Amino acid sequence: MNTKTITFTLMMGALGNVIFAISYQVGQLAPGIALDFSLLAAFIAGFYAGPLTGFISGIFVGILPGLMFGPMGMGSWLGLIGLPLGKGLTGLTAGILAKGLILRQNKHSSILMVPATLLAYVPECLYTYAYFAWLMPIFIGSGGASIFLYYILPKALAEVTIMSFLMAALIGNKGFNDFLSKFFISPIPAKSRQE
Hints:
CATH class: Mainly Alpha
Helix content: over 70%
Order of helices and strands: HEEHHHHHHH
Number of helices: 8
CATH topology: Arp2/3 complex 21 kDa subunit ARPC3
Largest sheet: 2 strands, antiparallel
């Protein structure tokens, strides 16, 4: 990783934690359940800078949610480990999808971004189910599949759907793309863009 990539990775991690802090304070749905739009930073990192940057940024993005839903919530110490790993999975998957779909180089990237963002969440969704259904009951004696199915999954799907449209807007925004290309990520050569 070069200096620009490291800076971008850390910046996305910090951005994700700031977004979480704001959405957590504004979007309390029930005790221990709040809106969390921090994945937006992991999506940006993965879709723009690739799988490794997406994964590492996702780990950083998960620190504050891990604290709030872990030791300060119902997840105890397991949340501090489990939540960052889940967010890292999303960043990793976003990077893999970006390479596979040739996002940022395709003139239909904005259209592709909505389903790509939803697909990027699938591994974390499966991991989160396993976390609530098996890991929490085994390691801390709480949790359960019903908490995931009734509370976490509907909230997460609503959040990711909203973020998918935000990502579609960002990838289609020339100013945002030029800013990232100028300061943080490699620009796409004009010849390689699909017309």
